[in-house]
Amino acid sequence: MKLEQIGVIGAGGWGTALSRVWANRGHAVLLWGNNASRVEEIRNTRENRVYLPGITLPDSVGLTTELQDCADADLIVFVTPSTVLREIARQLQRIVTNKNAVLLSCVKGLERGTGKRMSEILREIFPGHAVAVLSGPNLAIEVSRELPTATVLACTEAERAIRLQSDLGTPRFRIYTGEELSGIELGGALKNVFAIAAGAGDGLGLGDNSKAALVTRSLAEMIRLGTKMGANERTFYGLSGAGDLIATCFSRHSRNRRVGEQLGQGRSVREITTSMQMIAEGIPTAKSAYECARRLDVDTPIIDEVYALVHEDKSAAHAMEDLLARDQKAERG
Q1: Shortest CA distance to 167 belongs to which of 147, 159, 32?
Q2: By the 8 A CB rule, do 281 and 244 touch?
Q3: pLDDT tens readout for residues 110-166
Q4: Helices (H), 116-206
Q5: Active-site residue numbers?
Q6: 106 vs 28, 88, 124, 134, 209, CA distance in Å?
Q7: DSSP summary character for residue 328
């Protein structure tokens, strides 16, 4: 597997941060964005002022608004919102010229209606291509500042995972290889839902004891639903499960935790989202996860309350009271 050109599809904070890391690693990176004026600003200033202000991009990161420019890349990295991944992947599939290109999903979400993971969508649209996933406690601003970070990567072809680990990892962006794609993706997607709940608790002023209990029970719920969806329980105790859950629920940089905090303070979902530049994946994923849990008959009280909070206008105080009113039981299960 050669890695002469990396195409990064999505010029948000995470796509920009990864582009910076890999360009500094010595790779030729082409960053695609769909907003022409923003892409032009980044090209001229070498800074993504909307998503990563103060972070300078190396000159080796190219900018484009044409998917065609990424069609012959050796590694195509998807860093789009989950809600548009299928659409953009379809557009790209029609023009990809590199039959050996590896597709890497860094998208954390589940498709609404189908409950499909992002790698499942990519494998459906790009049959014959190796598909990989990367996830973990990876806050874009910290990665872009080269603060020590660890992440986990798995691929449909195990030997390619090892090669990607070698080619993409750095001393400050440590990549571990994983055994399965499903658990890595589900951990990364579901933690955003739980981060909204954690933020709501912050907004309500419930304290650290409450938050620790919520995060612990969120992990149990993640495992309960994730294993029913085909993942290995062990994966959820790793970087993409417990690790990402901790970071997203506690960090001041977490947009999903911030959404929850504002909900806890009484703002509406509409007010919050219209004032945000970034996508909070926990909002669409709450609906997808809720649908999956109902379809699989899995008990998911925290997901259910977050779903009601962001899709049915339930108040944060009411949602928290309903969680606390549940019958007490043995910890496991």
Answers
A1: 159
A2: no
A3: 999 999 999 999 999 999 999 999 999 999 999 999 999 999 999 999 999 999 999
A4: 118-125, 140-144, 158-168, 181-204
A5: 191
A6: 19, 14, 17, 5, 32
A7: P
